[in-house]
Design brief:
The complex is a heterodimer. Chain A is built from 13 helices and no strands. Chain A is mainly α. Chain A is flat, with a radius of gyration of 26 Å. The two termini of chain A are about 45 Å apart. The chains are: A mainly alpha, B mainly alpha.
């Protein structure tokens, strides 16, 4: 009898020892299948002759070879380069300026901050709907300026093949710059005031305070903003769909819209898969070193 | 000359301060205008939009566009309004948010209080999954949903959002629990408390703020999702964002801008409401997703 309670207790202790791993294992299984397994499957498909449905005829690098000869892909990656660099640069400049100005003991900060940040709560489809119309020359800003008597005012970028991609930048900056502001503001609030006072006693000007002491301390915020914004830029899909539908023509196509249309509407799954792999590689090149550094630091 | 404030080191002159206020107010206007004007124009008859000034207040106020967007507007082929799709989104978001938060809480608990060899690698794998472009999983996911016979249904979308939400929720709870004193857990263990008992009695009671962050952030992401909705649930099971896009970009008939605006505000309302009620947690969620907690 004593022996059986002993093994009972023993079993319970061992179960307790295994329980944490047991609880974690379903998530791990889900990750292995739905993230890493799926990634492997898509990579595999990118080397096959898949059309409307996955098929398993091996074609080597042919899809990649063809992908980089397709004009629309060329447009999509050029657009992504323009969009991502402007989006990141402008959002950072606006976000940082707003944060620095808000940090000057501003009256009404409690009202201004949520106003700057609320677009982040909206869906890109809503943002796209609002800006699509706002930028429409027939009824939006251009029309309003004409009605106010500024007859020569034109702002028809959204209809212009050359300029349409910049309207995507405007709407995306509108949506995310408040978020960048919040990140920088958190960084600014974490800076020790004593150092600043000491520097000031030594005769440093405001400009030098910011340039020499404050901005260097915001390095982690700069890095996070860059990583998050570039990740958002590469994934951008909804905003383009809602704002321009990829048009005029395919002037605002991005890799994400390209992947979708080749995979699901043009039945070129092999090409679609190879474009998705390129997207993943681009994001991985930014995220993996960042996450590695973050995790290592934490230990 | 300089206006000194007592507890900040930066001093600014009157002119600089005037410039700062002007700058901030201009940007407040920039953020408010598109949405504000959309709101005003959703209360106008169509003729006032196409023939008038978008900045002007309605001469004739009407809620007709709102009624139309909610219950009679043409979405796809059916004149159902957005109501059924709004309900779809709720039915999709609520279970997915709860499931992913529960699993994330348990994962975070294990990864901080029951550490074992290789747990950082597992966390790293989970973390990377937050940042993959979802295009890379669209094709196999469509296959799996087909095999499970839940393609094009709300349960299918719940599964997708649950699966790709775990990474973020685990991140939130791990960062939060990392700051929680491990000694308390060890002491309870010595007193004979088991794995779930400790979680239930010790961890959970102090997890209020991070549960709020997880709920709010997951809800916002899932409600606002378009890619998965458009890929896996067109037709009757479509979520609100997909239905709104169909409404706005349908090419047939007269473009009823006022109805589009009313619909867009309806699609924005739940997440905006969450933001207004619990903006503090919303900001914390943003931070947790970017900077380490």
């Amino acid at each position: 009898m004593a022996a059986s309670t002993d093994t009972g207790a023993d079993f319970r202790t061992r179960l307790q020892g295994w329980l944490p791993k047991l609880v974690l294992s379903p998530s791990l299984a889900v990750m292995v299948i739905f993230v890493y397994g799926f990634i492997a499957f898509t990579i595999y498909l990118s080397f096959t002759d898949s059309r409307m449905l996955p098929s398993y005829g091996w074609v080597g690098w042919q899809n990649y070879d063809r992908l980089f000869r397709i004009r629309e892909w060329d447009i999509a990656i050029t657009n992504l380069a323009i969009f991502a660099s402007l989006y990141i640069a402008i959002s950072t400049v606006i976000g940082l300026s707003l944060a620095i100005f808000l940090d000057q003991k501003i009256r009404g900060e409690g009202i201004l901050r949520p106003i700057f940040l609320y677009p982040m709560a909206l869906s890109f489809i809503v943002t796209g709907t609002a800006w699509k119309w706002f930028l429409d020359p027939a009824i939006g800003i251009e029309n309003t300026m004409h009605l106010w008597g500024w007859e020569s005012f034109t702002f028809d970028w959204i209809k212009d093949r050359e300029m349409a991609i910049y309207t995507v930048v405007i709407a995306a900056v509108w949506q995310s710059s408040g978020f960048v502001m919040a990140m920088f503001l958190a960084g600014l609030r974490g800076i020790d005031n004593e150092i600043l006072k000491a520097a000031q006693i030594d005769g440093a000007s405001n400009w030098n305070l910011y340039r020499r002491i404050i901005l260097p301390q915001l390095r982690p915020a700069f890095l996070s903003a860059f990583v998050i914004l570039s990740h958002l830029a590469i994934k951008s899909y909804d905003l383009v769909i809602a704002l321009t539908g990829g048009g005029p023509g395919n002037a605002t196509a991005l890799p994400a819209t390209f992947m979708y249309s080749y995979t699901f509407t043009r039945n070129q799954m092999g090409i679609g898969a190879s474009s998705a792999v390129i997207m993943l590689m681009t994001i991985a090149a930014i995220m993996v070193p960042y996450l590695y550094a973050e995790l290592k630091e934490k230990k | 000359m300089a206006v000194a404030s007592s507890d900040t080191a930066i001093r600014t002159s009157r002119i600089t301060r005037a410039f700062i206020y002007l700058f901030l107010l201009l940007f407040a206007l920039f953020y408010l205008l598109p949405f504000g004007i959309m709101l005003v124009n959703s209360l106008k008859p169509l003729s006032e939009i196409t023939g008038g000034n978008m900045i002007a207040l309605p001469r004739e106020w009407t809620i007709e566009p709102w009624l139309s967007a909610w219950s009679t507007a043409q979405i796809g082929v059916q004149p159902t309004g957005l109501r059924p799709y709004f309900i779809n989104s709720l039915m999709m978001a609520i279970p997915a948010v709860i499931l992913s938060t529960v699993v994330g809480a348990l994962n975070g608990y294990v990864l901080t209080k029951w550490r074992f060899r290789g747990d950082t690698i597992i966390f790293g794998m989970l973390l990377f999954s937050c940042f993959i472009p979802f295009q890379i999983v669209l094709i196999p996911m469509a296959r799996i949903l087909g095999i499970l016979q839940i393609a094009g249904t709300t349960p299918g979308l719940i599964m997708v959002h649950f699966v790709y939400g775990i990474g973020f929720t685990t991140l939130y709870f791990r960062n939060y629990y990392a700051a929680f004193p491990t000694e308390l857990v060890r002491a309870a263990q010595i007193d004979g408390a088991g794995f779930f008992q400790i979680f239930w009695r010790i961890m959970l009671p102090s997890s209020g703020p991070i549960i709020a962050v997880s709920f709010i952030w997951q809800f916002t992401n899932i409600w606002n999702d378009f890619l998965f909705g458009a890929s896996f649930a067109s037709g009757d099971a479509a979520p609100m964002t997909v239905a709104l896009n169909n409404l706005v970009n349908s090419s047939t008939g007269v473009r009823e801008y006022n109805v589009h605006f009313a619909g867009a505000i309806m699609a924005a309302a739940p997440t905006l409401l969450v933001y207004i009620v619990a903006g503090r947690y919303f900001v914390r969620g943003l931070m947790a997703g970017s900077v380490k907690g």
